[in-house]
Amino acid sequence: MATLSGKTALITGATDGVGRVVAKKLGALGARLLVHGRDQGRGAQVVAEIAAGGGQAEFLAADLAALAEVRRLADAVRARTDRLNILINNAGIGTTGGGPGRQTSADGYELRFAVNYLAGFLLTYLLLPLVIKSAPARIVNVSSAGQQAIDFADVMLSHGYSGGRAYCQSKLAQIMFTIDLARELEGAHVTVNCLHPATYMNTTMVRQAGITPWSSVEDGAEAILNLAVSPSIEGRSGLYFNGLREAHANDQAYDAEARRRLHALSLELTRLSAKAAAG
User: Fold this and answer.
1) Taking the CB of residue 79, how many other CB atoms lie within 10 A of it?
2) Mean pLDDT on 112-118
3) Which domain range does residue 113 map to?
4) 1 in a domain, yes or no?
């Protein structure tokens, strides 16, 4: 992969698992890293590891379970750079993270929908002027092969809740957002793609679910880096990948009316104006 000297990248959820590996690899390629996480101690460790590999990084703390924190994170990014060449929305919560049963975010939304989807939706739009200014640039949404159609009559899963259903719904929402945003950015020289990095990687999320890992975070990192920096992705946008290969997502992802409903709901829940979302 080509050197990323002079490029700036932001990775959410970069203090553990696959995000940590991706951050270190981007640092080794010469990118300036803005590393996001919740824990200052782990953040400092990642920054030190990137520095030890000859890279440059800074840690930004934020709890993405609160939209106010997402806005604060965007402010922190803008205060530190006037360009953003790579944005990787990787932070997420699994089927069992946060405890048993249905949980809600600081804003009262179902927790997985809030953290896995709404946080990235809002952060991306808040930082989009920086990304467009930095074109050619790339946005990567780390989704999952675990997908379930959104029930718009009960998006917050007040009835029939399960952690698996909540997780799969939030991951499909990421894919729907990716397709829409890619169309919005046609001609801006910004690619927007999403992926299932690898199945049951050796991560905290997988172990919390009581599942024996099938693959490694290095496998997942390779797939994420493919979308973030590979020349083969240049000009290709609005796609869903399973690992290194383009794949077909849940059918609802290609339903224009479902995507329209999700977008309208997302603007309402994040209190983001349509004008702001349009850049």
Assistant:
1) 9
2) 98
3) 8-277
4) no
